[in-house]
Design brief:
By secondary structure, the chain is mainly beta. It has three domains: 92 residues, Immunoglobulins (Immunoglobulin-like, Sandwich), CATH 2.60.40; 92 residues, Immunoglobulins (Immunoglobulin-like); 200 residues, no CATH class. The chain is built from six helices and 29 strands. The chain is elongated and about 160 Å long.
Length: 429
């Protein structure tokens, strides 16, 4: 190779190397992506839809993109974020679990190997929701009033304008029915329900209002009590279509205010043909537990129970028993009848030897014994109870009996001189 050829070859190599270096020096390094954030749409009380657009990838692959948000300006991935795919172009996200009535700041983000870039910031405010509340227990029930509690569990993101309790004698009461309100105080509150009818079933719900609407709590049911002429107060229970007292009568006066004679002496008691009462074992300490024992002559006056109530007939006891599941062919039998209706009428405590009932009915029968017609003696405390019913004939009256060793119901008639308890039933409407 000549010297001239060698020189040309070296020149060509140098030219190629110089071109390569020049081309290399002209290639740009990658940069952060460029993107925009669109205004929020489909805004609710707890969600919104946000869109973004990666307009430039910065010369490197877009490996992540999405939306970040917070309640302070210029949110980043250190706040809340939601990814939405990769690559350039448009995308959108639904962000949720937001607080109502709250202003949020939002930015789209995109990432390549250089780093994370953010779009412009947009803001939006979530809407206001209806509030929510729970209904608490009903306490302090009397013949014409009760106390019911409520707790505001969610304001809806707006000030609570009113809260309280509504009630009626039909299910699902609302503000069109009777209601009592409180306007201030803690989230948990109580209201006194007034103007109630005695011995009646009521439905109650807590409520809370804000500028959007009204929220109601779950429904609770309670029965008002009934008072006798002396002011003694008795619980009540609905069993089927009947309303019964849940306690034995303990008045010492008729409902016309006349006095019922008290007779303690055994011999005098068994020879009476006029009204009389006594306490078990002639001890007034049993009054509030078992009530009073009455002879039939007290019952037949028709003035023993409070106004609007009466001593149940034999047929009304049969309705009770059938409501509790007694078969029709058992109703007219004498002595022990049925299956477990007695257990359903017995209280869950107070019976000797653990022979308590289930009290599914709410009747709450207690073992107050009886006063024997034969000699006036008190028997059966803790083990037996008797209730008068209607007249059988001139000498006898129907009764019902429960005892600890049986879960069914005893039906029979007995001498009118015996001492038995009274469980009043409400007159039919």
């Amino acid at each position: 190779m000549s010297a001239n050829q060698r020189l040309q070859e070296l020149f060509l190599i140098a030219y190629i190397l110089t071109g390569t270096l020049l081309m290399s020096s002209c290639k740009k390094d990658p940069t952060l992506p460029v993107l925009t954030t669109d205004e929020a749409i489909e805004i609710t009380t707890n969600s919104a839809t946000i869109s973004g657009n990666v307009t430039e990838d910065g010369g490197a692959e877009i490996t992540a993109r999405g939306i970040c948000w917070g309640t302070v300006t210029m949110p980043t991935l250190s706040d809340n974020f939601k990814p939405s795919g990769t690559g350039p172009g448009k995308f959108s996200c639904v962000i949720s679990e937001l607080e109502p009535n709250t202003e949020y700041y939002v930015r789209a983000f995109a990432e390549n190997r250089v780093g994370i870039a953010y779009g412009n910031e947009v803001t939006f405010k979530t809407g206001i929701a209806a509030p929510s509340v729970t209904t608490g227990q009903v306490t302090g029930v009397t013949n014409n009033s009760a106390i019911c509690a409520g707790t505001v569990t969610y304001s809806g993101g707006a000030p609570v304008l009113e809260k309280g309790i509504c009630w009626s004698q039909t299910p699902d009461p609302d503000l069109d029915d009777s209601h009592a309100s409180v306007s201030a105080g803690t989230d948990t509150y109580t209201c006194t329900l007034t103007g109630l009818s005695s011995g009646s079933r009521y439905y109650a719900r807590a409520y809370v209002k804000n500028e959007v609407g009204t929220g109601y709590g779950e429904q609770v049911v309670f029965n008002t009590k009934v008072t006798d002429i002396e002011g003694n107060m008795y619980g009540t229970v609905y069993i089927g279509n009947q309303v019964w007292m849940t306690e034995n009568l303990k008045t010492t006066r008729f409902n016309d205010s006349s006095v019922i004679p008290v007779v303690a002496d055994d011999s005098t008691w068994v020879h009476l043909e006029t009204p009389a009462y006594c306490w078990l074992r002639n001890e007034i300490q049993y009054k509030d537990i078992y009530g009073a024992l009455y002879n039939w002559f007290t019952v037949e006056t028709g003035k023993l129970c409070p106004s609007g109530w009466h001593v149940p007939t034999d047929d009304e006891y049969k309705i009770l028993e059938q409501t509790l599941g007694m078969a029709a062919d058992q109703l007219n039998l004498l002595e022990w009848r049925g299956t477990d209706q007695g257990a359903k009428m017995k209280s869950t405590t107070g019976w000797a030897n653990g022979e308590n009932g289930t009290n599914i009915s709410g009747f709450s029968g207690l073992p107050g014994g009886y006063r024997w017609a034969k000699n006036g003696a008190f028997n059966g405390i803790g083990m037996i109870t008797y209730w008068w019913s209607s007249e059988y004939n001139n000498s006898y009256g129907w009764y019902r009996r429960l005892d600890g060793t049986n879960i069914d119901v005893y039906r029979m008639y007995t001498s009118k001189t015996g001492g038995k308890y009274i469980r009043c039933i409400k007159n039919s409407d």
